[in-house]
Amino acid sequence: MAIAAFGRECTRRGVPPPTISLFGSQFITWRGIPLIPSDKVPIVKGKTKVILLRTGESRQGVVGLFQPGLQGEQTPGLSVRFMGINEKAIASYLVSLYCSLAVLVDDAIAVLDDVEIGNYHEYKYQ
Known about the structure:
- The protein is mainly beta.
- The chain has 2 domains: 1-37, no CATH class; 42-118, no CATH class.
- Helix content is 9%, strand content 44%.
- It is built from 1 helix and 10 strands; from the N terminus they run H-E-E-E-E-E-E-E-E-E-E.
- It has one helix at 2-12, and strands at residues 19-22, 25-30, 33-34, 47-53, 62-66, 73-75, 78-85, 91-97, 99-103, 109-116.
- Strand 1 (19-22) and strand 2 (25-30) form a beta hairpin.
- The longest helix is centred in the first third of the chain and has 11 residues, at 2-12.
- The model has no long low-confidence stretch (mean pLDDT 85).
């Protein structure tokens, strides 16, 4: 909802944000950075937070860390283990993803608190 509110405000001010295609879906961008929603940031009393991450080692941002050499490793950090077959001949697998992230410099993460998503501003031009 915060991303939609951001898009509305940009459009209302005459600078609609461009979109890009990622993972088969369209995302709006800000200065070339995609704005990706997450259900991990709650909405409380019509307010939420916006978390900004600069990613990549070359940009001194946030990087993902994966544990190598896992039992049943399919890709870095992803383990798939066969757990057995039940009485209905259904196979069970345990799929685990082991990952962490490292913040390389202090300003690689920023949080904008108390973002109001329900209020609309009516701009009148004279």
